[in-house]
Design goal:
395 residues; alpha/beta; Rossmann fold; 2 domains; 6-stranded mixed beta sheet; 16 helices; 10 strands
C-alpha cells in the first residue's frame, strides 16, 4: 500500500478532513429566531453582563485551537503554514474522535514568535484551550511561556504530549525488565522541544511542584546534532546551556556512541539511522530503546534487538509499542476542559503519564503502552488531569 499516494487521493476527494455541522436545526422561522436574530441578542447581552457565561452559552466550552506556524512539521521540517494545514486537521479529528472535542487548525503565516503570540491571544476568546503544534525550538518555549497567563490551558504538544507518553512507556518498561526507575542512565538524542521536555520530566524539572513520590531517573545525557550537550560548549543556545546545568553530571564529551556507553535507556527524538547495533551492544544489559524518529527510526527494531535491547519502541504503527502523542493530548485537553482549568501545569502532565501507564495492567516487553484505539485512555487521563488541576489550584 502506498500511504502517500492514497492519502493524497483521500484528501483530494474530501477537500480536507474537517467540516462544520450545526448543533441546532434551521428548518423553521422559529429556529432562525432562536439561533440567530432576534433571540441571539439575549445571549450576547448575558455574556456581556457576565463574561464567564461564554463557557455556558458558546462553543468555547468544548473547543480547542490547534496553532502552528509550520516551522517544524513531523519529520518534514519547515514546510510553512499552508503545508501544515493537513497535519493540524489530523490533530483536530483525533481530538474529536477520541475525546469528543471540537478543534480547528489555526496556521499562521508569520514565523515570528511575537506574531504567533499576538494572534493566539487575540483569538483566545473563541476557544477553551490552545494546542500549540509543530513550532520550532527554541521559539516554541517563548511562545508557550508568554501564553500561559491568557486564562485558558495552553500546551505545546510536541513538548509535553511527547514527554507524557515517554514517561508512561518508561515506567512500564521498568516493570517489564525489573529495572529501577531511579537508577536509570538515560541518553536522549535530540535537544529540541521534545527532547528537552522529556529530559525535564525525567529529572523532575520544570513548572509545577515536585511531589515527594515523584520518580526521577539517575542521569540524563542530551545529544544534539553537534554531539553531547555539556557545560562550556560554545555553540549552545540559551535553553541547551540551561539544560547542561542539570544533565551529564560527569561531563562526558563526544557523540552518540560515547553517550550510549553503559546507558540503560536510549530515547531518540532526532534523525533516522544514527544508532547502530554496535552502539546498542555497548549499553547496559536489558537495554530500553525508544527510537521515535519518523518515518525512519534512529535504529530499526530488528537491529536494536540484535544489539541486545530488551524493550524497543518506535513512533510507527507497524511495530509494537508505538510511542505517539496521540496517546496523551486528547485526554489531557478533555481533563483540562472538564475542570475549566485556567492553565496547564506539571502536576497535570505527571498525572496524565501515570494514568496512561495504568492503562496497561501487566506490562511486557512488547506492550508498555496501549494502542490509540483503547477507549479507556481518554477517560482515565481526563479524570486524572482534572483532579490534578483542582488539587494544584488552577481549576
Amino acid at each position: 500500500m502506498d500511504y502517500y499516494e492514497d492519502s493524497l487521493k483521500l484528501h483530494e476527494k474530501h477537500g480536507g478532513k474537517l467540516g462544520i455541522v450545526s448543533k441546532v436545526p434551521l428548518k423553521t422561522r422559529l429556529d432562525l429566531s432562536l439561533a440567530y436574530t432576534p433571540g441571539v441578542a439575549g445571549v450576547s447581552e448575558a455574556i456581556a453582563k457576565n463574561p464567564d457565561d461564554v463557557f455556558r452559552y458558546t462553543i468555547k466550552k468544548n473547543t480547542v485551537a490547534i496553532v502552528s506556524d509550520g516551522s517544524s512539521v513531523l519529520g518534514l521540517g519547515n514546510v510553512g503554514a499552508e503545508a501544515a494545514i493537513p497535519v493540524m486537521e489530523g490533530k483536530a479529528i483525533l481530538l474529536k474522535e477520541f475525546a469528543g472535542i471540537d478543534a480547528f487548525p489555526i496556521c499562521i503565516k508569520s514565523q515570528e514568535a511575537e506574531d504567533i503570540i499576538s494572534v493566539t491571544k487575540n483569538i483566545a476568546p473563541v476557544f477553551g484551550g490552545i494546542n500549540l503544534e509543530d513550532i520550532s525550538a527554541p521559539k516554541c518555549f517563548q511562545v508557550e511561556e508568554e501564553l500561559r497567563g491568557i486564562g485558558i490551558p495552553v500546551m505545546h504538544d510536541d513538548q509535553h504530549g511527547t514527554a507524557i507518553v515517554v514517561l508512561a512507556g518508561l515506567l512500564n518498561a521498568c516493570k517489564a525488565t525489573g529495572k529501577e526507575f531511579g537508577d536509570l542512565q538515560v541518553v536522549i538524542s535530540g535537544a529540541g522541544a521534545a527532547g528537552i521536555a522529556v529530559a525535564k520530566m525525567l529529572l523532575g524539572l520544570g513548572e509545577g511542584k515536585t511531589s515527594s513520590n515523584r520518580e526521577k531517573v539517575k542521569e540524563v545525557i542530551l545529544v544534539d546534532s553537534k554531539g553531547i550537550v555539556v557545560q562550556g560548549r560554545s555553540d549552545l543556545n540559551e535553553t541547551k546551556a540551561e539544560m547542561a546545568l542539570y544533565t551529564n553530571k560527569e561531563g562526558k564529551k563526544g557523540g552518540i556512541a560515547d553517550a550510549l556507553e553503559k546507558a540503560d535507556v536510549f530515547i531518540g527524538l532526532s534523525t533516522g539511522g544514527i544508532v547502530s547495533r554496535q552502539m546498542v551492544e555497548r549499553m547496559n544489559s536489558d537495554a530500553v530503546v525508544f527510537a521515535l524518529a519518523n518515518p525512519t527510526p534512529e535504529i530499526m527494531p530488528e537491529e536494536a534487538k540484535a544489539g541486545g535491547a530488551r524493550v524497543i519502541a518506535t513512533g510507527r504503527s507497524d511495530y509494537p509499542n508505538q510511542v505517539n502523542n496521540a496517546l496523551s493530548f486528547p485526554g489531557v485537553f478533555r481533563g483540562a476542559l472538564d475542570s475549566r482549568a485556567k492553565k496547564m501545569n506539571g502536576e497535570m502532565y505527571l498525572a496524565a503519564a501515570h494514568a496512561l501507564a495504568s492503562c496497561v495492567a501487566k506490562p511486557t516487553e512488547s506492550e508498555i503502552v496501549p494502542t490509540a484505539f483503547d477507549r479507556n485512555i481518554v477517560p482515565r487521563i481526563a479524570q486524572a488531569v482534572a483532579k490534578a488541576a483542582r488539587e494544584s489550584g488552577v481549576a
